[in-house]
Amino acid sequence: MSRRARLLLLAAAGLVVAGFFAAACLRLPAFGAAVHPYGERAVAAALGQRTANTVSSVNFDQRAFDTLGEESILYASVLSAVLLLRLARDERKHEPRPAPVLPSTRLFGAVLLPVTLLTGGYVVAHGQLSPGGGFQGGVVLASGLHLAYVAADYRALGRVRPLAVLDVADALAAGAFSVLGLVGLVAGAAFLQNTLPLGTFNTLASGGLVPVVNAVVGVEVASGVIVLLAQFLDQAVEVVER
Amino acid sequence: MSVFPYLMAGWILLVGIYGLATSRNLIQAVGCLSVAQSATYVLLLAVGYRRGATAPVFSDLPVGAPVVDPVVQALALTDVVVGATVTAVLLALVIQLRKRHGTVDPERLTGLRG
Amino acid sequence: MPDTARLLPLAVAVPLLGSVLLAVAGHRLPRLGTDVLAAFCAAASLGCLVLLWVRTGDGRAVSWVGGWGPPGGAPARGAQSVGIVLVADRLGLGLALLAAALVLAVVAYAWRYFEEPVGGHAGVFPALLLLFHAGMCGFALTGDLFDAFVFFELMGACAYALTGYRIEDPRPLHGALTFGIVNSLAAYASLLGIGLLYARTGQLGLAQLGQALDTRPPDLLVVCAFVLVLAGPLVKAAAAPFHFWLPDAHAVAPSPVCMLLSGVMVELGVYGVARIYWVVFAGPGGIPHPAFRSVLLVLGTLTALLGAVMCWQQRHLKRLLAFSTVGHVGLFLVGVALLDPAALAGTAVYVASHAGAKAALFGLCGLLLDRYGSVDEHGLHGRARELVLPGLLFAVGGFALAGLPPFGTGLGKALGEEAAGRQLPFLLPALYVLVSAVTGGAVLRAALRVFAGAGPAPVDRPGEPETSGEGEEPEVRGPGRRLPVPLVAVPAVLLLCSLLVGCVPAVGARLAEAARLFTDRAGYLAAAYQAPPAPAAPVPPAGWTAAGVLLGLLSAALATGLALLAVHPLHRGLGAALNRRLVLPLRRLHSGLLGDYVTWLVVGLAGLLVAFAAQR
């Protein structure tokens, strides 16, 4: 197809799809309406499980099976990146050279690195109480660690980033999610059922299974994202043609 | 204009598709895929919005306060993670493709046809 | 022992845990240890599914994950649940079982298949296979639309990476990227559709959605949501014009991965279409049966014809097999479109047996790659005369594709033809015969040329758009070694299974029961909440009939005739004008360009929207 023919075809088909989508939107409930049946049920169920952050309750308790699948996708894409970005037969690694860094940048990194890691840990730990949770906190932790790269150099990042350990941690956390599901089965309840004591509403120990799954997800996301980024950074910094 | 946010989702999808169909750079194309995906976030969050309500977190809210739909937020969160990780796999493929083909222009990849 | 229903999530959890085990232990074990561990994990997953299959019987097993069933355990309040429900019946479980069997076959086939991976990445390949398997199980068993999207994406993410496994060769990367972008885009379209349905009904469960839609007459919103939701499964099923990614990806993926992609992943797309339509949209508030029937019949016929025509044109053997999958998927779509338990039973038998035959043929292509570093029909002309047994198996695979009795493909085809003939006499049965004869004939032609050196060496046609199968990176190092046993044994066993599907009456009988259950919408809706009554419809027939055997023999004879004609010198110049006018433009459409494929996706969506809206 010539580019012109493609554009014409796309424009015609796109107009049809746009027309139908707009017609469908006109038949949706008005924006901002008060009726959200599933949402109301989910809020009631979350409060019943003494989980203040209802989004976490949906993610880690009521629809935890979705999250199991989603964590598996994260895990699969980490494995995929490891597989696809491996050293080809005609490539080798070279040692990155130390790079000069401005003193102000170095200071900035040295101060911010612990603060970022603390923030990430806080966001993970309070997932059942306040906005945030395993994903958000995990990503903060993982990207915070890369301040070492910005503030020092690639070798410094290598020292604060034990890849072999994180690789295993990522896999084990992915497995731990399934194991937590099996605990429910062994306890005579359903897979992934929240059988732990629910604790007191609005405290760190509330929500039963939610903070546990939350922590597991936090570990998996943090280590998974670091391993994932490591594959890409290696390609940029270390891998050269033989 | 209560239908406007929904229409926006359709618009974003079509813009992303236009980018995918005309892009001359695969990294940009993967970006366009993410744009198309943003349509799903907009639609989901718009569907869950409730006028005058706040975030569905009850640590500093009285029980019974009006909140927006937490389910679509959870779905959007799942969607974000799915999108980000699939993007990572696709970018890994682009990196290797750049090495083997020496180009990231999809119009110059003609090894598979007929 | 807990009841079967509560064990359903194990179908996903067991392969997930297996993949974790392999990823952690894989590169710490010697090569043999990794292979044994992979085989063990695949076998454990298969065993788990066999257990579930036996214990579920001819009914349904319903499992509320996390115990979030109807509030107070009152079945009638099922629409008020906040959880995810898994609903297993024989068709869903059967596909999961088929996937497990193929994963085990692939692990056995890939025993010492790949070169020693560099840099401690042993175990990653089988770990991804098991994750892929977990995704397929989740998709087949879930009774929740959003959950289906999540597992659809899990399947996808694993499949893209497995397709691009050979990073030293540019073409797999290209095929995998096209595959990834087109499939993901379609998945996001599906999610938009899910968003529309959620806004209308406030539900995500399939049964709950179906029930909620039935409370009001359908409007354009329902049509739009239906087409958007179907985008994902239809692209996965490679229905024309959503099929362009498939030949590109299947031609270049490692042969063991092709066995899974063609054998079961594509068929899961068809399953998704059927499941979503039957449970969510088949009621009074959805898409009327005649509209679904006519649109899907056209779509299936188009796909089947296109697959057959393009299959015949290929010289790249794996691409040839990929297009034959497109052709057969067209027939499966026709089987689903008829909305008849008998046609569905035939399709189920067809899918099971097709998986064995197609996987065996891809396995034999892997053998050719291993020996000669090529899968090009022209380049390999007469070179594989030494491989007598593989050659025979390849020809047997061709006859299986052509639907020769008593192969299961023949039985599935016969059942499909009979049901189709009741709705559209002559035309639809002729489609079945034609498509299986042409695809089987193409395989037989390749077998004659490659393994017997029959006919004159084919001449290249410069200037035509085509993909040659030469200059492939061999998937294994050291072609001088002895022929590994699994490369022949696994295809042989797979072909035997394909034969047994047709010979063991129990298989057909069970799948016929399954088809009756699948098309019992009221039963599914009730089952998601409470114990349903037995379906009222009669169990469709699932045995051989004289007409079926004759039609099977006819297509096998046609396939043989086509293959012999193709390698005969007379064939030169025959139909050249037809080729130039009709086939060449069609081949040019398969340009390999991402922009074209995305455009076709939108064109397909627009076409479906118009077609369904016109018949509302």
Automatic annotation (TrEMBL), chain A:
Compartments reported by the entry:
Cell membrane
Membrane topology summary: Multi-pass membrane protein
Residue ranges annotated as transmembrane are 72-88, 108-127, 133-152, 164-192, 212-233
Which Gene Ontology terms of cellular component type are present?
plasma membrane
Family matches, as Pfam families = MnhB
Every copy of the Na+/H+ antiporter MnhB subunit-related protein domain together lies at 107-226
Q: Which UniProt keywords apply?
A: Cell membrane, Membrane, Transmembrane, Transmembrane helix
Q: Does the keyword Transmembrane helix apply?
A: yes
Family, similarity comment: Belongs to the CPA3 antiporters (TC 2.A.63) subunit B family.
- What protein am I looking at? Sodium:proton antiporter
Which species expresses this protein natively? Streptomyces tateyamensis
UniProtKB/TrEMBL annotation, chain B:
Task: Tell me the superkingdom of the source.
Answer: Bacteria
Q: Principal place where this protein is found?
A: membrane
Per the UniProt record, which residue ranges are transmembrane? 6-23, 30-51, 71-95
PANTHER family, sorted:
ANTIPORTER SUBUNIT MNHC2-RELATED
InterPro entries in UniProt: CPA3_antiporter_subunitC, NUOK/Mnh_C1-like
The protein's UniProt keywords, in alphabetical order, are: Cell membrane, Membrane, Transmembrane, Transmembrane helix
Q: What is this protein called?
A: Dehydrogenase
Output the Gene Ontology cellular-component terms: plasma membrane
Organism in which the protein naturally occurs: Streptomyces tateyamensis
Write out the similarity annotation: Belongs to the CPA3 antiporters (TC 2.A.63) subunit C family.
Q: How does it sit in the membrane?
A: Multi-pass membrane protein
**Where found in the cell?**
Cell membrane
